[in-house]
Structure formats: C-alpha cells, structure tokens
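User: quick one
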Amino acid sequence: MTDAELRASLWLTLVTATSAVLCGVVGGTPIAYLLARRQFRGRAILSAVLDLPLLIPHPVAGIALLLVLGRNSAVGGAALDAGLRIIGSPIGIALAMLFVSAPLYVSGAREAFARVDPRFEAVARTLGDPPWRAFRRVSLPLSLRGLVAAAVVMWARAVSEFGAIVVITYNPKVASVLSYDRFTSFGLSEALPVAAVLAILALVPLTLLRALRYGRTAADMGWSGDS
Amino acid sequence: MIDLRGVQARLGAFELRDVSFVVPTGKYGVVIGPAGSGKTTLLETIAGIRPLRGGMIMLDGRDARGLPPEARKVGFVYQHGYLFPHLNVDENIAYGAASRETARDAASRIGADGLLGRSVRGLSGGERQLVAIARALAARPSILLLDEPFSALDPRRRVSVRREVRTLHREWNITVLQVTHDFTEAGLLGDVAILLDAGRVLQSGPPERVFREPASPYIAEFLGAENVLAGTVHHLRDVAPDWATGDDPTLDPSARGRHAIEFRAGPLTLYTVGDAAEGPGYAVIRAEEILLSTQPHPSSARNVFRGRITEVASSGALTRVTVNVDDTPLIAALTTRSAEELALAPGQEVLASFKAMAVHLC
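Assistant: Done. Structure below.
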C-alpha cells in the first residue's frame, strides 16, 4: 500500500475505533451488568437513552455532539482551556465513534450477562465470594465470549461510522471520510481503493464473530475440547 | 440453628408468607412440599440469595438480616448442581474450600474423588450432584442447605451418599435443611419436618408426628395417607373409656384423659380417643395400620369391619388391598407374603380391623 494518505487514514481509524471500544467496554460493562441483573427504578428509561443513538440519524448525533463538545459549549470550552481540543481532533472522532457504537456493545453485553444463570453467582457467594469477586471469578468468564463478540460488533460499527464523524472532524480523515472525500473530489476510480480496503477490513470482525458464534454453539452442545 | 420467624419473601408473583420454624443446632430438617410450594425460594432466602421482605432469620444465634450470603457460613447445593462450567471438578470443589486437604477430604467422603481431574461438561446429573455436595462441604459451612441433592443419583449411590451426608452432619455438627419429595428420605433423615405449601408452612415438627398426625385432610392426602374419611365427631364421655384405660400394654399413655370419640363417616362408625371438638371432621387411618383377616379372631382392635376385596395391587414386597365396606373403600397395606398366605383376591370377603389409636382426627 503506497498511498500515504490512505495509510494514515487507516491507522487513525484503527486507533480511534479501538480507543472508543476500550472506553465503551470500561464504561458499558457495569451498565450492561446492572441492566441484565438488577431491577431498579428508571431501568426502562436508562435502556431507552442508551438505545437512542441507534435510532437517530448519525449526522444528527454529530450535531448533538457538536453542541455539547463544541468550543462554545461548557464542556468544549473547559477542555480547550485545559489544552484539549476535541472538535477537529482524533479525540472528537473517538467520541463520535463511542457515541454511535457503544449502545451496540451495551446491548450485546447485557445479553451475554443475561445468558448466565444468576444462580452460578449465588453459589459463588455462598462459597465465600463477595459480589465483585463472584463477578470476576464466575460471571465474567462465563460471559466473556459474548462480551468479546459485543466488543467486535462495536468496533466494526465504529470503523464504519461516517455521519457523526464528518460533522465533528472532517480533518484528519478517517477511512470512511477519506473514501467520501475522494469520491466527491476525484470520482469513483480514486474512491475505489479506499472502499476496497474498508470492505476487507470489515471482513476481520465478521470472521471473528462467526468464529465466536461457532465456538459458543459447540460449547453449549458439549462439544468443546475439554469435555 | 436455623430459626425463622414470620419470614416473607417474593419471587415474581410468588410469595413466602409468615414462614416460621426452628431447626436446632446440629439437627437435620427436611422441607416437604408439592412443586411450586416455595421450597427453593425458602432455601435461597435463608442463604441471603433472595431478599427478605419481612420477618427475621436467625442463623446460629446471629440475626442474618443485612448479612450478605458470603457472611452467613451457609453452604448451598442446588438440585442441578450449578457447577462452574469453566472450571474442572477439582477447581469446583476447591472453589470455596478452606484448604486443599479439606477439598480432597470432602471429595473422598462423598465419593467424588474418582471424578477429580475431569471436566464438568462430561458429568452425568448424579455425578454433578456429588461434586456440588462435595464443593459445599469443602467450605466447611455451619449450615447446609440442600435442594433435592440426591434426586439424580442411582438408588444404590443415593443410599450411600445420604448416609455419608448424615454422618458428616453429625461429625462436623452441621445444621442441615434439605428439600425433598421423598417421604422415605424425610423419615430417614429428618429430625424436623417442615411441610410447605403455596408459600406457607402447613405443619412442622418431628417427621413421625407430622406423618402420623397430619393437621388437615389436605396434609394427610399430600403425605400419602390412603384412608381419609369425612364425617362427624361425637364425644362419648369426658374421660377415656374402659378400652382406653385398660391394661393394654400397647396403649399410648397420652390417650388417658382424652375424650372417647365416636366418628361417623357415612355407614361406618369408628371409635377412637382424642381431643377433637365435636362436629364435622376427618379421620385419617394409614394403610399399614389396617389388619386383614379371613376369619374373626379375638383382638384389642376396637374397629372391625366386614367387607369385600375390590382390588389387590402388589408392588415388590408390599401389597395394597382395597376393601369395600358398605360402599366405603378402605385401603390396607401388608407384605406381599402375607397377602399370598391369606390368598387374598378380589371378591373375597375379609375383616378389616384397626385399633382406636390408629385413627387420627383432624
């Protein structure tokens, strides 16, 4: 790959998407666990708020983020004062990716936790584990495959995001913005290589997901290697 | 000690209501009840897995309200084991064990040592139960809650594991509360029987008493009493009659001073003693209390009825014989050998007799 701009764009896409996923996993896992395990007041509202980014058009999500994080907003102004530029920087890209793709992780992780019978954790508690240790020793390993699958889906969604990013940070360009930019500036032939690389990139999470799903089915049916 | 006072808990629409009973320290309690009566919810509430909505739970003298499950020193064995599938048998047993030796000791005492090193995915239901029991015992709990822990074991293994659990319970002074559907198991293991239905305790006490003196016809039928007759109680005298105060050495001393009672159930009139109030009631006679004979012979039995056999049903060593007495069926249980010696057959006329003390009124 000799196209330096494409290489830089791909690298930026991978770094920002991975950062967004890491933030999503750290923040989303406890929320997903709470939603799967606990009944509390406001649970339905929290679920609805979390799903909202999935339903609104992504340029609208970008505009909403611009309002909250722009230089004239309280958050954006404070960040600028602290020397942190959000809009027009990789941080803005990662935040846009996080905003639109985190609901997919939370939803997948919630399902993964819900699939684990809470009685496993109950047994661990009666065997002396406080809640955090029971989670770490039992619930987490039992739902790990589902959590990884949810993170892969989130990563794939983050990599393919365009609408929200283009509003917040046109430059530096992530792969999806570069592909759009080449298409509008130079036509189909210039956009094709970028599109092809993005398509190949999309195969990676797809293959991973298939492998994870096959593994889960095999394990559920008692075909796993340790039986 | 497990001491429950007015316990209330909820699981969805199901509620445990005003559950109270005591299993003294080092004793073995059994919870009996139909499916959906709240047995598992009860154990989970005691373990702290389900929140307590009312009442009090005292465990070994400590108020358990507010204590998380890990602080209650309670071992829990679910019917399906709930072995951690990502750990092998050794790791499961050692999960909460005080030491490696404790884990090995528990595994060998329960007979799960032959399973060490294996993955839990390949275990049968019975093997899973063995590992789950060993895992709970390895943590050396002071209270052990068992939810039908022997149900998947084959009959031979069930006897040996049941015996070993009973032995460990005595040796380690563990207070046990076990859910079972098996009345024989309840009678064999239990020091205290608790009868649960629809989230409420119907009756509790020594199993012998619960089985022999059910508090209601519903309990009697649930516990498998074959002869439950509806009728009317009439007091004959205020003190026990001559046949209850005589020198019959088998006479229950507690009968003295009670009312002599005539119980009319349709065409049948039964004689008994007790403290039942006059009026409508039920008489319960266990099938094994009814004797059958083909010839009249002198005996101390006050209740003797002539009837005709309508059914003889043998199952192994026991035979159940249904005798029609004035259109009222009485079921007697006797050994198959006795039934064969008497050559009992449908249509045959026999005498069914039972002592006054065999009749329990409720």
